[in-house]
Structures are given as structure tokens and as C-alpha cells.
């Protein structure tokens, strides 16, 4: 295929998560089965049915950007810039050692700066329209995530926001792969970022009855994908960002190649505002397309990082989809949900979970699904309850399934000449 002539590899990764403020601390927590879910202390939660969240702790934006720049950014943008700088540093890019016109940004985001909307509305209603902060719009809109990444890092190629709910991060990676394969970019900073743990964000999801409320007094047990006693997802925040690079460009500069971004598949259920199509046909199609794009067969896949939200609706439908896409192979390989430990990072989930896929290949370790104590009878795959296992991983699929029926799947494989 023409688009396979330019191969795409991963040369850098960065993360801000409820488990740690970089990739390695997050990964070590995942390997030990640690949960990042805590009681939400960001605002008064007394009237909210769900009182828990995956909160980023001890984040210092000034480690990654000028203080004056940080003040112009919403939280989701700060997370994205920080993770992007980590990724560029790992890839070995500094100002002047790459062509900025051939360096792009494709960043996924689901919601934008909710905290900016809320604070500005309070000022509008209490003090009038003339007192609304002048940076309200530039801080809250979703495109300011990648725009600020580009400004801070000096990246002058295509710069785009991808907003497809919980599939945003994975769809952004797909856009980055397409840009590199087409020859428009040599380097792409991509993934997702989210910061929507606010009063409006939590209230909105609570009204939809999608958040866990059963485990408010025991937060680390609340996210329990595929478990019979799950009752909803746990909202989380942070960013997962990768540097993707055209293979020959990476080799020419002696970059350390972490893995190959082999394939991407996407589809839409065209079914419902919030619920996936019951038989999982759309998700299965996206998985098949990702494998086809990456010249992979079901027998090549050694691990699936499931969307695995811990909602009553998602988990059995995704299980059906995996069976449709992988056939008999589905029962032989680990299918786990790292959201059991991180919570659901919404638009950032696909970026972080693609990073996790790269790490499973690098370290030969698959993280497990914690809190899986009694499997739902409709969820009957190998979900690795507990801390995970050491094993050789050649290729992975990472699933992201969003409100509106957006399905996006990223295929990562071990890099070989």
C-alpha cells in the first residue's frame, strides 16, 4: 500500500496522570497494581452523587513553561504542554535541531476548559459582562491545547485539535500517522489531554448516571471493569502525549526507536448519543481496520488495552466486539483495562493507553485489571485480574470508544528493520 512506504515510529513519550507526573512513575504504579482513584477534594462534593476521581497531584506547570504563559492556559492545556515537553525531551529534540515547518501537532481533547467557563459565568452573573476576564475564550476553547504546545515548542506544521469524546486521543494519533505517511510531516506531537474535573463536569456526568457512586467510601475499588459489581466509570484527568516520527528521519538522527505505530482504524456506530451499538459491530470494524492498516493478523496480536470503562453498558459490548474482531484469538490473549487504576481520562485516554501499549512491548509486561473479583457472565475474556504478568508482546491494539459512537483503535508493534 502506498501509505505504508513511510513507516511511523515512536521516539518520545510524556504523561501527566493520577498515578504520576511522568511516564515512568505512571508505569511503575500500573505494574504494581496501584490505584490513582481518590476522594475528590477539588471542590465541595457534598451534593454530588459521585465523590471520587482520578486527580493529578503535585503538578507544577512552571517546570515546563514560563509562569506568564501558564497563567494564560486552562488546566487541560497545561497538562498537554507538560506531557508534550517530556515527549520531545525523550525524543532528543531541542530548538534548532529539527525543521519546525515539518513538525506537527495533533492533540485530542474532549471538553476544553470547563473550569474557565464556570469561573467566567460566575463573574458574568455577579459583576456583569464588562468584568468577564479577557482571556476567557482563548483559555477555554479546545484548540488552545495544541496551539500552546506548538507555541511553546516552536512547531510550525499542521496544528489541529481532534474532538471525538473518549476517542479523541486515539483519533489524534490516527491523524498524526496520516500526516507523516502522506509526507506533510516528519515529526508529529500527538495524543490527548483533559482537565474536566469541575463542578459542571461532574454534575453533567452524574445526571447521565454514568459515574460510579457505590464506592465513594472506598475509592480505590470503584473502577472495576468487567466485574459483576461495577456501577460506572471514574472520571480522571491528565495527558498522554507521544512523538511520532517518520522512520528514516528517526534513523538518520540516531534516535532511539521505542516501537512502531503500525496501524489505525476508525468507525462510527451511527446509533446513539451516549450508548454503543449493542453488538459492538462498529468497535469490531475499527479493530479490523487497525490490523489491516498495520498488516497485522489476529494471531499477531499479543495484548489488547481495552476501552474498559467499568460501565454496565460498555464492558459486555466491547467484549463482543473483541470476539468479532479477533475470533478464536480473543480468548488466548490478555485483554485488560488500565482504567481500573487510572480512571477514565476522557480525551486523554487514547494517548495514555497507546503509551502503555508501547511500554508493554518495551518491558515485556502486561498490566492487569484490578478490582475484578467476580466477572460479569457476559465478560468472559482473559482480563488478568490483579497486577498483570511478564510476557513477550509483539503487537497490541488499544481501543477507544466515545460518546456519539466514535470508535478508534491504534495498533502498535515491536520495531524491526
UniProtKB/TrEMBL annotation:
| Cross-referenced InterPro entries | 3-oxoacyl-ACP_synth-2 (IPR017568), Beta-ketoacyl_synthase (IPR000794), Ketoacyl_synth_AS (IPR018201), Ketoacyl_synth_C (IPR014031), Ketoacyl_synth_N (IPR014030), PKS_Beta-ketoAc_synthase_dom (IPR020841), Thiolase-like (IPR016039)
Query: Could you say which EC number(s) this protein's record lists?
Result: 2.3.1.179
Record-level GO cellular component terms: cytosol
Which pathway or pathways does this protein act in?
A: Lipid metabolism; fatty acid biosynthesis
Recite the UniProt keywords alphabetically. Answer: Acyltransferase, Fatty acid biosynthesis, Fatty acid metabolism, Lipid biosynthesis, Lipid metabolism, Transferase
Q: Name one GO biological process term.
A: fatty acid biosynthetic process
**Domain annotation Ketosynthase family 3 (KS3): ranges:** 5-414
Question: What does the similarity note say?
Answer: Belongs to the thiolase-like superfamily. Beta-ketoacyl-ACP synthases family.
Molecular function (GO) terms listed?
A: 3-oxoacyl-[acyl-carrier-protein] synthase activity
Q: What does this protein do?
A: Involved in the type II fatty acid elongation cycle. Catalyzes the elongation of a wide range of acyl-ACP by the addition of two carbons from malonyl-ACP to an acyl acceptor. Can efficiently catalyze the conversion of palmitoleoyl-ACP (cis-hexadec-9-enoyl-ACP) to cis-vaccenoyl-ACP (cis-octadec-11-enoyl-ACP), an essential step in the thermal regulation of fatty acid composition.
**Location of the active site:** 166
Q: What is this protein called?
A: 3-oxoacyl-[acyl-carrier-protein] synthase 2
**Which reactions is this enzyme annotated as catalysing?**
(9Z)-hexadecenoyl-[ACP] + malonyl-[ACP] + H(+) = 3-oxo-(11Z)-octadecenoyl-[ACP] + holo-[ACP] + CO2; a fatty acyl-[ACP] + malonyl-[ACP] + H(+) = a 3-oxoacyl-[ACP] + holo-[ACP] + CO2
Q: Which SMART domains match?
A: PKS_KS
